[in-house]
């Protein structure tokens, strides 16, 4: 993965529309690669840092803005902050060219992000941050966080706690080629 340009995303995939990854209908970006390796992670296929789907910031921006009727963009993973340069550039473009909101799911804590090069810059472009490692033993059954140790941090006044409670906790997307994407707060694997 070392040869990928800093403004090219290595994606696990994306969903043009989801209602369980933050307020309203959202375009969800799943980055590929995560060194956090939280036990019990729901996105195991997104953990390897191998090149998966490469897409430039320009290409991804065009896909987002061509999706009509969405309220915002949610970044998930893998680990979005392991591709912080591309995330910052996409968020900058979204702020300049749209009124879409930005929500980020990350395994890093707020203090860890503040200590990162460009961490403060990144935080200045985000509306809602769901921060902290997933802890299987503290798994949530509903809401926006995967486990109760994770912090939901409102970095702008665009949203409040009332905006992130939604009746749909997870979605299953089945595509014509047979692949399936499950997203949101997934039920315990024992009941699937």
Tell me what the structure shows.
Helices cover 18% and strands 26% of the residues. It has one domain (8-183): TIM Barrel. The strands form two sheets. Strands 3-1-2-4-5-6-7 form a seven-stranded mixed beta sheet. The relative contact order is 0.17. It contains four helices and nine strands. The chain has 192 residues and is an alpha/beta fold. The longest helix has 14 residues, at 84-97.
CATH superfamily heading: Aldolase class I
Q: Please report which band the strand proportion falls in: under 5%, 5-15%, 15-25%, 25-35%, 35-45% or over 45%.
A: 25-35%
| Structural classification | alpha/beta
Number of domains: 1
Spatial ordering of strands, largest sheet: 3-1-2-4-5-6-7
The CATH topology corresponds to TIM Barrel
Largest sheet: 7 strands, mixed
Provide tags for this entry.
about 190 residues, alpha/beta, TIM Barrel, two-stranded antiparallel ribbon, 4 helices, about 25% strand, globular
């Amino acid at each position: 993965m070392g040869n990928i340009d800093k403004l090219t995303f290595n994606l696990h995939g994306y969903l043009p529309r989801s209602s369980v990854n933050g307020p309203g209908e959202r375009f969800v970006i799943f980055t590929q690669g995560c060194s956090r390796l939280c036990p019990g992670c729901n996105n195991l296929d997104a953990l390897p840092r191998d090149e998966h789907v490469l897409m430039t910031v320009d290409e991804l921006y065009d896909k987002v803005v061509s999706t009509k009727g969405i309220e915002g963009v949610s970044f998930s993973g893998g680990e979005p902050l392991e591709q912080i340069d591309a995330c910052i550039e996409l968020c900058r473009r979204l702020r300049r060219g749209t009124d879409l909101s930005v929500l980020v799911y990350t395994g890093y804590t707020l203090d860890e992000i503040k200590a990162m090069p460009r961490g403060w810059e990144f935080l200045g472009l985000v509306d809602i941050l769901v921060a902290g490692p997933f802890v299987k033993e503290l798994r949530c059954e509903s809401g926006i966080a995967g486990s109760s140790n994770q912090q939901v941090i409102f970095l702008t006044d665009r949203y409040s706690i009332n905006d992130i409670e939604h009746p749909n906790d997870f979605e299953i997307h089945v595509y014509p080629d047979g692949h399936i994407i499950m997203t949101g707060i997934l039920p315990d694997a024992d009941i699937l």
